[in-house]
Amino acid sequence: MTDEFSPIGLGTMGIDDPERIAAAIEMGYRHLDTAQIYDNEEAVGEAIDRADVPRSELFVATKVWADSLAPDDVLETTAESLDELGLDTVDLLYVHRPIEDYNPEETLPAFDELRDDGRIRHVGVSNFSPEEIAVAREVLDAPIFAHQVEMHPLYDQSELLADAHRHDTHLVAYAPIAHGEVFDLPVLNDLAEVHDATEAQIALAWLVEKGAIPIPRSASDGHLRENLAAADIRLDAAAVARIDAIDREEKLFE
Predict the structure, then answer these.
(1) Catalytic residues
(2) If DSSP states are collapsed to H, E and C, what string results for 156-224?
(3) Strand, helix or coil for residue 134
(4) Which strands, in side-by-side order, build the sheet including 31-33?
(5) With CB atoms 3.0 to 4.6 Å apart as the test, which of 16, 59, 124, 215 could cross-link to 146 if both were Cys?
(6) Which residues pair with 35 in a beta bridge?
(7) What is the pLDDT of residue 2?
(8) What is the bridge-based pairing of β-strands 10-11 and 31-33?
(9) The pTM is what?
(10) If you ran DSSP here, which 8-state letter would residue 127 be given?
(11) pLDDT tens per residue, range 70-85
(12) Closest of 114, 130, 89 to residue 3, by C-alpha
């Protein structure tokens, strides 16, 4: 198993076809992101089994949903996730959202227990505020390996990105193309023409240049390949600054 994130991972929310996920793995995706609430862990597990890529080359992440964050529920549902995925160990387990049953003093020790027992390799958090992640760092014995948040050209997460960099935490960006909103942004239209790329590729390249790990999702082979190829696009500082300066904010997930 690897500790290295690929520059661009695969988000699987809404994808329940094992063949589609297996095809993405064989295209070159190595970081697979799922969650209990996506109800597709079994499909991800089947894809891992079908793809002609060793498990040791894959980085598999899942998340415990908010209604299962009491300590016993964390342990029970993680066992269920491992069973669905067909894995003995998951590389990264996130607290999906710090709401409902989340209590840092009670929830997070269960994640440490899972790590100590070898059922997970790394602990992550998702959708945390700077204050919430600071508390989590104080409570956890394990370092926070990754923080997953919504991030795209219409929702810059500079504060959380800086926090992640200060603490050697990966910032993983979901909804990186803003549900297609990036296609209507003049700055991205211009940069896409300059780089002979799509606006989606420019959005992904921007995230990579800023030190984030985007996890786009797609049910199209063509788009899966385009997304993966975005890692090869190099944006200079001026291009990054132009995207940073977009005067519009749109948060997609509450």
Answers:
(1) 38
(2) CCHHHHHHHHHCCCEEEEECCCHHHHHHHCHHHHHHHHHCCCCHHHHHHHHHHHCCEEECCCCCCHHHH
(3) helix
(4) 10-11, 31-33, 59-64, 90-95, 120-126, 144-150, 170-174, 212-214
(5) 124
(6) none
(7) 56
(8) parallel
(9) 0.96
(10) S
(11) 999 999 999 999 999 9
(12) 89
